[in-house]
Amino acid sequence: xxxxxxxxRGDGIGPEVIREAVKVLNAVGGKYGHTFHYNYVLAGGEAxxxxxxxxxxxxxxxxxxxxAVLLGAVGGPKWDTLPGDERPERAxxxxxxxxxxxxxxxxxxxFDELADASPLKPEIIAGGLDIVVVRELTGGxxxxxxxxxxxxxGPAAYDVEQYSEEEVRRIARVAFDMAMKxxxxxxxxxxxxVLESSRLWRRIxxxxxxxxxxxxxxxxxxDNGAMQLVRNPxxxxxxxxxxxxxxxxxxxxxxxxGSIGMLPSASLANGNFGMYExxxxxxxxIAGTGKANPLATILSAGMMxxxxxxxxxxxxAIDNAVRAFxxxxxRTFDIAxxxxxxxxxxxxxxxxxxxx
Length: 356
Ligand code: IPM
Ligand code: MN
Known about the structure:
Blueprint: E1 2-10, H1 14-32, E2 35-41, H2 45-51, H3 57-65, E3 68-73, H4 89-98, E4 103-109, H5 122-125, E5 130-136, E6 146-151, E7 154-159, H6 165-180, E8 185-190, H7 196-209, E9 216-221, H8 222-231, E10 238-241, H9 243-256, E11 264-268, E12 274-278, H10 295-307, H11 312-327, H12 345-355
Parallel strand pairs: 1-2, 1-3, 3-12, 5-10, 8-9, 8-10
Antiparallel strand pairs: 4-5, 4-11, 6-7, 11-12
This protein binds 3-isopropylmalic acid and manganese (II) ion.
């Protein structure tokens, strides 16, 4: 088969990790007889420098015409002083909204070989961890009404948290569908003791739960959820939550695996379309040094094969190659121990490609 992939290399280490994911995809294509066509498009800081805009229309139209989007990372200190609307990160929000990517899947897994890397005590993560955060991605406070106004306390700014029933329903279904393929447990995280939008959230999630009698649902307030993630992370299978809570909790969940450089993500629309990117950012401090870990981007490419192209065997081949890489004792700079010589970004890509 032939597939068209819009690729945003982005800023910082973005281009370096994308290069390795493309290497691995091409190895998969060679082995299984697929051709991947890459359309490189601009977004983020690079787009600002070249076109004056963080998300050129052309990028959106090429992305829409493609089968999927693969993205490295955007942003960096060079653009940090721009006003909010013109920052590279705006490009991500624009892509999410324009492409209808309402469901963000962020798996947080502890690979057995890397159990030492977790900052949690061994007894807390013994036997491994496997959590997926399902984050609502195109609603809530990120996209609600915002503005400035005068108040009796002086000038003020506001951002509105708002969810419609339908927005909650569709993200809840993604979470329950996912739980059906896993351990059949969903934890919905909200702040229903305080927020009206969370009470609506909780009511709709309970309604959706009735469509999935085999799945056990529990609800947690976000403050407790943040605590339970480090106290008893094994409690969680699938977490479903709002845009802003998901932003925060997915960083926390990723950190308990000890290696944010290993974590992929998928942002899905209705149907099979999706955008795939590592959870980590553009890490400008190590750009160009060969120290970036491309495994999160490689695993993101694997998610693309699984969720958008429906190529399960090929997706497993990528996951297995990464596992074999670790099993052989290969390490990247971020997960190196004292007795390993870390592989560079491109050596890592070569090695994983050879294990496909
Ligand atoms: C993320 C990032 C983005 C977000 C930023 C860069 C806009 O933190 O993908 O988690 O807040 O969603
Ligand atoms: Mn974030």
